[in-house]
Amino acid sequence: MLQQTLAKYAVAERINVPSPEVEHATKRAIIDWFAALLPGGAIAPATSLVMALADDVGHGDAVLYPSGVRATARTAALVNGTASHTVEFDDIFRDAMYHPGAPVIAAALAAAQSVGASGDALLRAVIIGYEISTRIAVALKPAHYKYWHTTGTVGTFGAAVAAATVFELDETQIGHALATSATFAAGLQQAFRSDAMSKPLHAGRAAEGGLLAAMLAQQGVTGAADMLDGERGMGRAMSQDCDWSAAVADLGTRYNITAMTFKNHGCCGHTFAAIDGALIIRERDGISGEDIDHIEVETYQTALDVTGNATPTTEFEAKFSLPYVVSSAFVHGSVRLDAFSHERLRNPDVRRLMQTFELRVSPELDAQFPQQRAARVIVHTRDGRRLEFLQPTRKGDPDLPLTDAELSDKFRELADPVIGSARAERLLDTLWALDGIETTCDLAPDSAHAAEPVSV
């Protein structure tokens, strides 16, 4: 009865008035999503998708960003979901190694624009999409993450229930949408173990698949009632010893959307604690890259499995290279979008530091994962000093969150070069007041005044 329990919650939550804390957290999630979406929409693979799906572009009620061009809801969900996962600045649910915003908000917004739903309806859809999908992700971990990209798999469920909420489907229909989502869910981890554009496509396909599942349920398409927890269901096929009780734990009383990680660096989240530690040492001890002889980093096993690439050659590989991003932090003082420019990828000071790295697993820090993502950075200077810092969590995690002001600054930094500062500020103001807008179609940018896309 798992799917039915989740569907029953979705219907009840739809008419529930969110608390001020939950509503504010949801606005933060949507602002953070737009911050990642706008630069991602100006580059491949999102731009390639628009060309490949030309027949679905130029008509419909949903919006592609940053251009403002109209498209069908499914195409908008696919393109915007992909775009928001491209520059590696989208949110994280730490306890499940899952990026809910890219699939959930992309699907919810496309659905909302397709029917002219209000900002308040969008907020409720996003809340429900986050709450159900983050709990499914927790139930499937950690075995699921060995081969599967949670954002591509579990994101489909979040997208489905978010879209179903906008469409005001009943409990039975939502159960069928979840069932169809289970058979649509995909996304293999190999996609981000090498240079490829497939990883952001996982988020886009999850958004599109979930939206389609809701649309099909609305038209009477049915699915098996035990697609999640059946003998041949998702839990058995894509995890081990799956604890489905976690999928309903505190549902409706504790809201995971209030405990999101908003990225402070433009790369894989498994590198963040080490970057934070490097930046603290850099400022605390007044050193730069040229002062360093060699660097040691101790962290948890998954961080090294995913980001241990010592010789990245492309922008994508560099975003998943702990030696590169930490070296860049020491040399340049930040790891934002410009950290992956052609010039910085080949910076000789960064490349020299990368060759000095020693990476190792700390049993202590590994035991804390995934609830805590820590790293110890040890720097040996050329004049013989040993400088050390243990970063117990990541800047942007729930226990060290970005403030509203810092989140707004992140939005401006990423949005201004793409759509211009004036338009970015207007959009930011609208998003902070999202509960008061009558139709999400008001979130459509004025494409005639869009700035030229920048290389990011």
Topology (elements, then pairings):
Layout: H1 2-14, H2 20-41, H3 46-52, E1 57-63, E2 70-71, H4 73-83, H5 101-115, H6 119-140, H7 150-153, H8 155-166, H9 171-184, H10 198-218, H11 234-238, H12 272-285, E3 292-299, H13 301-307, H14 315-319, H15 322-332, H16 342-345, H17 348-354, E4 357-361, H18 363-368, E5 375-381, E6 386-391, H19 404-419, H20 421-432
Parallel strand pairs: 3-4
Antiparallel strand pairs: 1-2, 3-5, 5-6
Textual characterization of the structure:
This protein has 456 residues and is of the alpha+beta class. The chain has two domains: 258 residues, 2-methylcitrate dehydratase PrpD (Orthogonal Bundle); 123 residues, 2-methylcitrate dehydratase PrpD (60s Ribosomal Protein L30, Chain: A). It has 20 helices and six strands. The strands form two sheets. A four-stranded mixed sheet has the order 4-3-5-6. Strand 5 and strand 6 form a beta hairpin. The protein is globular and about 70 Å long. The relative contact order is 0.14.
Structural class: alpha+beta
What is the share of helical residues?
40-55%
The CATH top-level class label of the largest domain = Mainly Alpha
Within CATH, the superfamily of the largest domain carries the name: 2-methylcitrate dehydratase PrpD
Total domain count = 2
Q: Which oligomerization state do the chains in this entry correspond to?
A: single chain
Average predicted local confidence, pLDDT: 95
Cα gyration radius (Å): 21 Å
What amount of the residues lies in strands? 5-15%
Secondary-structure element string: HHHEEHHHHHHHHHEHHHHHEHEEHH
CATH fold-level label of the largest domain:
2-methylcitrate dehydratase PrpD
